[in-house]
Design brief:
Blueprint: E1 5-11, E2 19-30, H1 50-64, E3 70-80, E4 92-94, E5 100-102, H2 110-124, E6 127-134, H3 138-144, E7 148-153, H4 156-169, E8 172-175, E9 193-194, H5 203-212, E10 220-224, E11 230-231, E12 240-241, H6 246-256
Parallel strand pairs: 2-3, 2-6, 5-9, 6-10, 7-8
Antiparallel strand pairs: 1-3, 4-5, 7-10, 11-12
Helix pairs in contact: 1-6, 2-5, 4-6
Length: 258
């Protein structure tokens, strides 16, 4: 019953210059839609907006500390609940960049919204770098458990910088390989691409490969913070919603200005 909303914040200390984009996932609650989540997996889904907290927090800190480069923060707020108006598995939808997507699983909802956000920002703003933060995949939890962020990007020098930074600030991040062959898992005869593979194999990588269909810039890094967004007994963050990734993002931008 609550329609989605797009929030865009801009900060322009430099006129006629390109932007660094900070994009966050804000799902107010994620029941899984018609592919509904079972008990035991549903109770923390009010924290499925953690990626947007990192994007907004990074934007706020950099602006308040007079960051020297242009910034844009883009967030699309949605809820993923069962409804008589909901689309269903096997539906085909047309995205912002006109590509068609077959919905194999309605619990892979955010990659659809994130894809449109990435496309919109890139089309309507001059973007130099792009960073998105999202609690995107269960596969990231299986691979890296609860204190390591999965990162993936098109520019190796940028992802390597991020991995070096975490040694300094104790926010752990690890790069997963972008194996293009896995994109075959997203093929469907009914649309340009499926929103997820039929199996959960390499789920984090295939999610990034899906998003890559909607981004042209090479200076783009995706942060999958699923599970590290909820911590217990961490030396830095409180128990509960963690904001993990924000210190990593701030440090990265501060180093780039030096």
């Amino acid at each position: 019953i609550h329609e989605p909303r797009m929030i865009i914040l801009t900060y322009t200390p430099k006129q006629n210059s390109s932007y660094t984009a900070l994009i966050g996932k804000w799902v107010t609650f994620d029941s899984g839609w018609y592919n509904i989540k079972p008990t035991g997996y549903m109770e923390d889904m009010n924290l499925d907006m953690a990626g947007s907290a990192v994007a907004l927090g990074t934007f706020k800190f950099l602006v308040e500390n007079n960051y020297s480069n242009n910034l844009i923060c883009a967030i699309w707020l949605v809820e993923n609940l069962v409804s008589s108006k909901s689309y269903t598995p096997t539906d085909i939808i047309k995205m912002y960049n006109w590509k068609t997507v077959r919905v194999f699983n309605t619990d892979a909802e955010w990659r659809l919204v994130l894809a449109d956000t990435l496309s919109y920002v890139e089309k309507n703003y001059k973007i130099e770098k792009m960073f998105d933060f999202a609690t995107l995949t269960w596969a990231a939890i299986i691979a890296l458990w609860n204190e390591i962020i999965a990162i993936m990007g098109k520019n190796p020098s940028l992802t390597h910088k991020i991995q070096k930074i975490w040694w300094q600030i104790k926010e752990r991040a690890w790069e997963l390989p972008l194996y293009e062959k896995y994109k075959e898992l997203l093929k469907t005869p009914f649309a340009d691409i499926s929103n997820c593979a039929k199996s959960r194999s390499a789920g984090t990588i295939t999610a990034w490969l899906f998003l890559s269909e909607f981004v042209k810039t090479k200076n783009w890094v995706h942060f999958d913070i699923a599970w590290p967004d909820i911590l217990e007994n961490h030396p830095i963050y409180q128990t509960g919603g963690s904001w993990i990734g924000i210190r990593l993002a701030i440090k990265l931008h501060q180093d780039q200005c030096q």
